[in-house]
Amino acid sequence: MSRYRSVKGMSDLIPPGIDTWHHLERIAHETMARYGYAEVRTPIVEDTELFTRSVGESSEIVGKEMYSFLDKAGRNLALRPEGTAPAARAYLEHSLHQK
């Protein structure tokens, strides 16, 4: 047995189980496309302020669920704790409302 293990609560998606995920993703993509929706994938790292401004400094997401850090340039970044704020940021940044 390897001494390297995934982090508790995290799972590797490996064959054959990954095939189920691929099937579900394919159905979701087909269904969304049928109704005019398209996929948006945002970076796993975002500016911390994106989350503190959208959910509040004292929210449970910011206080208990968010990992933030300073990068080499001194920017305050965070691992994305949820997807709503990044999706809204991408929508505005790329003017998706005009497309």
Enumerate the spans where pLDDT stays under 50 for 5 or more consecutive residues: none
Reading the helices and strands in chain order gives: HEHHEEH
The portion of residues assigned to helices is 40-55%
Q: Based on CA inertia axes, which overall geometry fits?
A: flat
Tally the beta strands. 3
Question: What percentage of the residues does DSSP assign to strands (E)?
Answer: 5-15%
What is the rounded Rg?
17 Å
How many separate helices?
4
- Mean pLDDT score, rounded? 89
What's the assembly state of these chains? single chain
Please give the order of strands in the largest beta sheet: 1-3-2
Describe the structure in brief.
With 99 residues, this protein is mainly alpha-helical. 42% of the residues lie in helices and 10% in strands. The protein has helices at 17-34, 48-55, 60-65, 84-93, and strands at residues 45-47, 68-70, 76-79.
